[in-house]
Amino acid sequence: GYYKIDEKSLIKGKTHSQLLIIDRGFDPVSTVLHELTFQAMAYDLLPIENDTYKYKTDGKEKEAVLEEDDDLWVRIRHRHIAVVLEEIPKLMKEISSTKKATEGKTSLSALTQLMKKMPHFRKQITKQVVHLNLAEDCMNKFKPNIEKLCKTEQDLALGTDAEGQKVKDSMRVLLPVLLNKNHDNYDKIRAILLYIFSINGTTEENLDRLIQNVKIENESDMIRNWSYLGVPIVPPSQQSKPLRKDRSAEETFQLSRWTPFIKDILEDAIDNRLDSKEWPYCSQCPAVWNGSGAVSARQKPRASYLEDRKTGSKLIVFVIGGITYSEMRCAYEVSQAHKSCEVIIGSTHILTPKKLLDDIKMLNKSKDKLSFIKDE
């Protein structure tokens, strides 16, 4: 539905809000990269449907819903997997050492025993078991093949390697992925797309060669149909890349150097730095946004952080065509860093790379077969 802005409250200065509407083609890279923050990684690598995670513990099949009511999930979902793998065992140790029930062990079996001995800790421990299982399942998928793939993806996405050296030959970076029999077609297509995005489009001959060599003729529309989103795959002329914010000084993990475009946009909107040519109808941000000193987005997040912003401004961003978990994380981080401005992000639906590629493949099919925006 549509909502009319309360003009009286605007006049009184009660509401300082800005709405940005973006279409999905603005950042194709973030939709196909392997993201290594907990929620994004889990939804990409594991078969989580309707926020339900299935796992085995104590020899039994169990289900857990990943939801807002789970304080631990809300606290750790936007953190890097390496941090999560350190944090959960620490939480487990705190409980086990307090009760001296597991002699300091932090294995899943020890935790299961602890639950049997102390039923009043069951709920707290169950959450930790769920998230440790989830993190371990992610790592079991990550370690054999995805880890090496991530280095290639980051190099292609950024155009530089982990040492900051410029990638001179993107095809040379891509080839080992295409020749690796352990990577499935989805991962190879994601790598091909990152290669094409990195060079701002390719030639028809080069694209045909890539598709034939990797034997993905049946899935070729997963690549070609990006043109429907305004992303040039075979452009008629040389395209220029948008300038990115220099984040080389920021502390990151080597396999997580890419920052989604949306973070640049959110920060620029709050700082009144949006390019007026690209955002022609964008009104001036309220001055209150600029006077508030930014704080580190890497500080410990709190589930109740919205309570601090009862009278603050709102930056509302809506992405048409789907949003990634990494982009949702960026909105959260920017909200954390700018205490006087609440960032609210929304979209037609939430994307995972595989589902997006399946949807893009259908874009040139007849309407009755199209499920790009699914009815809820």
UniProtKB/TrEMBL annotation:
Any GO MF annotation of the entry: syntaxin binding
Keyword Protein transport: yes
InterPro entries reported for this sequence: Sec-1-like_dom3a (IPR043127), Sec1-like (IPR001619), Sec1-like_dom2 (IPR027482), Sec1-like_sf (IPR036045)
Coiled coil: none
The entry's keywords: Protein transport, Transport
GO term, biological process aspect, one: protein transport
Signal peptide bounds: none
Record has Repressor as a keyword: no
Family: Belongs to the STXBP/unc-18/SEC1 family.
Official protein name in the record: Syntaxin-binding protein 3-like protein
Organism whose genome encodes this protein: Equus caballus (Horse)
